[in-house]
Design a protein that fits this description.
The chain has about 80 residues and is mainly α. The chain is built from 4 helices and no strands. The chain has one domain. Helix 1 packs parallel to helix 3.
């Protein structure tokens, strides 16, 4: 049974929510939605684990530390990848 006002997370949305999920910056309800999706989606579980491993290996880079030209190139590549997926 689906509760009124409750919307399930799709895989594409989970990709967009992965960063705030891993950083712990999303609200309790949104986090619960993501975790419900992860409980039933092996592909998204693998994606989140890859992101978690990347953060562990690379650490955190503050936006201000990334040169504007590099930031623009990364955003362009990310947008292209999310459109093709």
């Amino acid at each position: 049974m689906r509760l009124p006002g409750r919307r399930d997370v799709a895989c594409q949305e989970l990709v967009e929510l992965a960063t705030p999920y891993l950083e712990g910056t999303m609200g309790r309800r949104e986090r619960a939605r993501v975790e419900r999706h992860l409980a039933g989606c092996d592909g998204c579980q693998a994606y989140v684990e890859q992101m978690r491993a990347t953060l562990r290996l690379v650490g955190r880079v503050e936006v201000e530390a990334v040169p504007e030209e590099t930031r623009a190139a990364l955003l362009t590549a990310f947008r292209a990848a999310t459109r093709s997926g």
